[in-house]
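B., you asked whether I could sanity-check this one before it goes into the benchmark set. Here's the sequence:
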Amino acid sequence: MAFCGKCGSAIADGVAFCPRCGAPAGQVVQGAPAGGVPAVPVASGMTENVAGFLCYLLGWLTGIIFLLVDKRPFVRFHAAQSIVVFGGLTIIHIVLAYGVLGWHTWDFWSLWNLVSLAVNLVGFVLWILLMVTAYQGKTFEVPLAAGIAKSIAGNPTV
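And here's what the prediction gave me:
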């Protein structure tokens, strides 16, 4: 079965234009991924789901890179969400590592370490979850970060 190169919807054989978006059938791609993201490489040669996956690979660093380089709404949202989620977790981790005032007493040392461990565990679980869902072509919105990410990415409809 053939798929539209613009929107990813199925196109029957012998059809001149995509019934969903009207793109010429000359831009047809065979075999789109199961997640629904079209398997059309752009100028970079990278599909949207792979670019979305890579937005989370090195946390906020790759998020910044993809936000500046890629202009596709799906990728921009994942890049912005990566910046917000992992940038926020990095700030929380720095505050916990050095204490709010730069010092903490030995009574609270074990509490600080437990909270820091919990933040690291949440970050690791989010990292895996966000990479897997982006690779599947889906959008998982982290509750507090998604609104900020949509405003950064400039696409509130994702």
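One thing to flag: DSSP finds five helices and three strands in the chain. Otherwise nothing jumped out at me.
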